[in-house]
């Protein structure tokens, strides 16, 4: 019987890309289900009883950590995360592996090899790991949550979830949401240091995109990635230094 896997990832673009990448680096694995959130992941675990779960830690609703607690001792778990502080804890407490976003073919291939080596062993008890990760999440660095933008005599408050992308604009940074734009005085480099790296990716020296706002990825005639947004008509070009982030999408 081929090994059976479930993928749990809440972002559609990342979910599709990860599935393609996993199929490419581990052709023998049977991906029996793909979950779009923690609640669905928990349900699919009960239905399919997979050998391995590729689990995004940060998911809305029922978190990845709660799913990991349910999977503990029942299947092998590979964590997928945008936060590197989870990595040490994952290795110290028996998880097969962890993957940092954006996931590369080389890194995923190494993780799959570790899974193959442990398939004949009983899955680890992850209770200590989950507790440690929950403590780490509670003490995690607070990323930028909202931005003030001047609009005439008023100051407009925008949450980072509303923002589709940022783009450098001479001395300012252009902040673009689904239905409006504003200029802010925070430099792009400074923004990059304050934004959650699991959600905001730099795709050009002058552009940071909210991956939650991306609907799909296509290619131009030269094979360079083009990002299509869910709520904006314009597309965003990915420059060569950042093209590897979308290699499997």
Strand order of the largest sheet: 2-1-3-4-5
Distance between the termini: 29 Å
| Number of distinct beta strands | 15
Quaternary form = single chain
Helix content: 25-40%
> Which word captures the global form?
globular
CATH topology of the largest domain: Rossmann fold
Under CATH at level 1, the class of the largest domain stands as Alpha Beta
Protein model, in words:
With 249 residues, this protein is of the alpha/beta class. It has 7 helices and 15 strands. The strands form 4 sheets. A 5-stranded parallel beta sheet has the order 2-1-3-4-5, with helices on both faces. Strands 10-9-8-12-11 form a 5-stranded antiparallel beta sheet, with no helix packed on it. The chain has a 3-stranded antiparallel beta sheet with strand order 13-14-15, with no helix packed on it. Helix 3 runs antiparallel to helix 6 (127-138). The longest helix is centred in the N-terminal third of the chain and has 14 residues, at 12-25. The model has no long low-confidence stretch (mean pLDDT 90).
In short:
The chain is built from seven helices and 15 strands. The protein is an alpha/beta fold and 249 residues long. Strands 2-1-3-4-5 form a five-stranded parallel beta sheet, with helices on both faces.
Could you name the key traits of this structure?
249 residues; alpha/beta; Rossmann fold; OB fold (Dihydrolipoamide Acetyltransferase, E2P); 2 domains; five-stranded antiparallel β-sheet; 7 helices; 30% helix
Question: Any chance you could write out the topology, listing elements then pairs?
Answer:
Layout (H helix, E strand, L loop, with lengths): L3 E5 L3 H14 L4 E6 L2 H11 L3 E5 L7 H8 L4 E6 L3 H8 L4 E4 L4 H14 L8 H12 L7 E6 L2 E6 L3 E7 L2 E6 L3 E4 L3 H7 L5 E5 L2 E4 L3 E6 L5 E5 L5 E3 L12
Parallel strand pairs: 1-2, 1-3, 3-4, 4-5
Antiparallel strand pairs: 6-7, 8-9, 8-12, 9-10, 11-12, 13-14, 14-15
Helix pairs in contact: 1-5, 2-3, 3-6, 4-6
């Amino acid at each position: 019987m081929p090994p059976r896997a479930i993928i749990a990832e809440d972002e559609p673009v990342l979910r599709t890309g990860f599935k393609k990448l996993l199929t490419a680096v581990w052709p023998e694995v049977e991906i029996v289900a793909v979950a779009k959130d923690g609640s669905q992941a928990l349900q699919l675990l009960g239905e399919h009883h997979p050998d391995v779960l590729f689990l995004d830690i940060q998911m809305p609703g029922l978190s990845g950590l709660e799913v990991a607690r349910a999977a503990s001792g029942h299947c092998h778990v590979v964590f997928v995360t945008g936060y590197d502080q989870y990595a040490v804890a994952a290795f110290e407490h028996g998880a097969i592996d962890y993957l940092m976003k954006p996931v590369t073919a080389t890194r995923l291939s190494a993780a799959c090899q570790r899974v193959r080596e442990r398939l004949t062993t009983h899955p680890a008890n992850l209770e200590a790991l989950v507790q440690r990760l929950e403590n780490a999440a509670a003490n995690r660095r607070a990323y930028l949550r909202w931005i003030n933008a001047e609009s005439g005599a008023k100051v407009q408050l925008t949450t980072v979830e509303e923002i589709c992308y940022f783009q450098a604009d001479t001395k300012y940074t252009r902040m673009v949401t689904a239905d409006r734009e504003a200029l802010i005085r925070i430099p792009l480099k400074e923004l990059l240091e304050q934004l959650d790296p699991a959600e905001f990716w730099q795709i050009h020296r002058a552009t940071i995109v909210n991956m939650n706002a991306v609907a799909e990825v296509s290619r131009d005639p030269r094979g360079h990635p083009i990002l299509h947004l869910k709520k904006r008509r314009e597309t965003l070009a990915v420059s060569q230094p950042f093209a590897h982030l979308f290699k499997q999408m």
